[in-house]
Amino acid sequence: MGRFVARRLLQMIPVFIGTTLLIFLMVYSLPGDPIKALFGSKAADPATVERLRHEYGLDKPLLQQYWNYLTGLLQGDFGKSFTGRPVADLMKDAFPVTIRLALLAFGIEVVVGVALGLLTGLKRGKLIDQIVLILTLIVVSIPVFVIGFLTQFTLGMKWKMITPTVQDSMDIGQLAVPATVLAALSLAYVTRLTRTTIGENLRADYMRTAIAKGLPKRRVVGVHLLRNSLIPVVTFLGTDLGVLMGGAIVTEGIFNVQGVGNTLFRAIQTSEGPTVVGIVSVLVIVYLVSSLVVDLLYAVLDPRIRYA
Amino acid sequence: MRGAKSAVWLAGAIAVALTATACGGSGSGSDDNAAVDPNGTYTYYNTEPQNPLIPANTNETGGGYIIKNLFRGLVDFDEKGKLRNMAAESVESTDNVHFTVKLKQGWTFHNGEPMTASSFVDAWNWGANVKNAQLNSSWFADIKGYDEVHPEKGDPKADTMSGLKVVNDNEFTIELAHPVSVFKERLFYDAFFPLPKAFYKDPKGFGEHPIGNGPYQQDGDWQHKVEFKTKRFDNYKGEDKPKNGGVVFKFYNKDDAAYNDLVSDKLDIMFQVPTAVMSQYKNDLGERAVDQMYGGNTNIAFPLYQEEWAKPEKAKVRQGLSMAIDRETIAKTALKGSKDAADGWTPKVVEGYQPNSCGEFCKFNPTKAKELIKEGGGVPGNKLTVTYNADGGHKEWVDAICNDIRQNTGVECVGDPKPTFQQVRADITDKKMTSAFRMAWVQDFPNISNFISEQYRTGAGANDMSFSNKDLDDLMKKADEAKSIEDSNKLYHEVETKLAEQMPSIPLFFDHTKAGYSKKVKNVKFDTFRQAIWTEVEVKK
Q1: Residue A31: which of B204, B207, B426 has the nearest Cβ?
Q2: Where, if anywhere, are coiled coils annotated (chain B) (predicted)?
Q3: For chain A, which has fewer Cβ within 10 Å, the N-terminal or C-terminal residue?
Q4: Residue numbers in A near B133 (CB within 8 A)
């Protein structure tokens, strides 16, 4: 187990360097000159441009820029954005908001999704199963921005139950609606995934054995059935956490949540290399760690899987 | 990006459908007799500033709107675009080279420091210095000694510009390197704002906590990406004392989100509503919708650096294309009145505007249009493309004018959208255009010279066409050296009428401020800069 974790952690290093290098190169190959763009539609003053280029280290060869960035990163320095603010500060503003939003959404999809999946899996073909199936089908087929705008319009502008946008991005109560919107799609997937595996495992040998042994129903379903059925669901959830962290651009935009998605979007628009690479590096780490946790969870869920 | 764009469209459609079925056009409930709270604050739509809040480094609207409230310069423009003295008692010159500035007495900065002649002179020297790499430094370029502190290469040879001299605490003189008839007008700009001594101790900290001499001061910390709060500065000595307690600048990533807040009274003033709601915002807001012209225009320009377009006879082709466009009808139908048909290169609300500067060449006349294009040997490649940025809501008018050109002249014309503004700008400044492209100008200050000189002078910063005409250059030089602003305006107007002979760009529309405000505020007016008169806004109790 320990060796497995150590090996995985070591594997993260090349993955991390590779992804940051790729992103670094991609940002710098974006069309348009970010320094000249600071001048808007006015002509850029060459002497000032030269100074700024030097200040942000953009006058050096690309690989050297990357090397400087990487060494800075190892010392905990994420560089600074073109606005003069350290990227670390930008992330300090954005990540707490996004973590709240993502965890809230994640919580909703785990609790509601697995519960609905279990319910429908056990009551296959019944009315409740049909209803949930249709509902999830609807959610899956509607793009998230439509759900977002519809919720905002109905709840926020017509019925005035919520403010149309989030006024305070740190307030969990206000984040509830955006989090639900964000969770909707994954929730539908989790429900369907859980339902299918529950349905399959109901016919498994160990289930028959457990029932034959006369174990109480709670234990049969809760321990034997659910635990084994969760493996594909956990795989999905693990990657989904990363998606929730970085991919909430649309939802954040609709509800004016000041999170990572928006910061990243703005940084890409202005070709702000250090900000983009900084945020994406953190997201890469989130992905890597969550996939490691998923792999470890397999062992907990299924006793047949052991890591030497 | 794609998703977000179509989202706007779809939300617009949904919103329209729902309002149509449910509300059916809500009446406005604005009650102008409501009691006013003189200490009430209101929220103003804004975007997160892109630079630290230092006047010489703030060149975009996000930071600009905040700076303009925290500071007051020597002069500024009133609601109608007329120049007036602010911190200056007088700015006088007899030759447009030597200026004497006298300051009003008793003004202080928010930290209590008195505003003196050095507050201006030191700030300008600092802003012009190449070492400080300020984005607005070129605004000081007319001052004598600028090339010493801001050489094209290398380190500055001096710390101060020789053209600036402090006479005493309330008086300083400016000497320019060459006559500039609109220099006094230019002094309104943010770059010329004064700075307190506290600034030089910690410019970086100042960018987060700016200290100005204006009607509002910062209230608490700048909450990045969320809001920037200001409160009334009680010691403010200017004539435009605030009628409210403060402005809260609220930052949005998407203007659609802000608009929804505006309609629900969660945001008080929005100076530009999103393009997606252009056709419906008057229904939503009733009397609280604002629609008026401002100092900005939309043209299409031609790459005169391309061999084909550079030929002298192609001026006829451009005139012909211009005459094939029915601006009035497009403005009324396709654009639903959101722009006005242009009759020249200078918008109506700008000082120096005269009707019909473009003459017959901007009047719709399909027969003459065809003749002129034929005389000029036709459009190069017999096909016109109009390049524009897809992220700015330009598709409607580009498609409309192309439609007119196709129908009335038989010339093939298509819009060529590029994803972002930045990308189009890069192609334009690198002189990579091969056919027509969108060229828009928003005034730096409301004077004809700003629209003509910055775009049509040989080598000017925004001369995206590489247009060059010696006669016009000479005329502009003469205008800059004119003794009075009236003479200068007249000469610039002459240049404008002569532009029609060459038609380096085709004037299309004068742009509109399309703003709105909530039920909580009244007395909301907009100037030619598309800015609310912040100090005049009254907050209801």
Answers
A1: B426
A2: none
A3: C
A4: 48, 51-52, 55
pLDDT by position in tens, chain A (length 308): 788 889 888 988 898 888 888 888 888 777 767 888 788 767 788 888 899 888 888 888 888 888 888 888 888 888 888 777 889 988 888 899 998 999 999 999 999 999 999 999 999 889 999 999 999 999 999 988 899 999 998 998 888 888 888 888 788 888 999 999 999 989 999 999 999 999 999 888 988 999 899 889 888 888 888 888 888 898 898 888 888 887 678 888 889 888 888 888 888 877 788 888 888 888 888 888 888 888 888 888 777 777 65
Task: Indicate the CATH number of A88-301 among 1.10.10.10, 1.10.600.10, 1.10.3720.10, 3.40.50.720.
Answer: 1.10.3720.10
SS3 percent helix, strand, coil of chain B, rounded to 5, is 35, 20, 40
Nearest one of B293, B346, B349 to B493, comparing CA atoms: B346
Q: Minimal Cα–Cα distance from B307 to chain A, Å?
A: 24
Residues whose CB is less than 8 angstroms from the CB of residue B340 and which lie 6 or more positions away in sequence, other chains included: B293, B331, B348, B509, B510, B512
Q: Do B462 and A41 touch (CB under 8 A)?
A: yes
Q: What interface predicted TM-score (ipTM) does this complex get?
A: 0.83
With vertex at residue B182, the alpha carbon angle to CA B178 and CA B184, rounded to the nearest 5 degrees, is 100
pLDDT tens digits, residue range B508-538?
999 999 999 999 999 999 999 999 999 999 9
Å between A115 CA and nearest CA of chain B = 31
Q: Which residues of B touch A51 (CB under 8 A)?
A: 130-131, 133
Query: Taking the domains of chain A in order of start, what are their residue ranges?
Result: 2-74, 88-301
Nearest chain A residue (CA) to B259: A164
Tell me: the pLDDT tens digits for A279-288?
A: 888 888 888 8
- Continuous H helices in A82-171: 87-122, 127-141, 144-151
A32 closest CB neighbour out of B14, B135, B423: B423
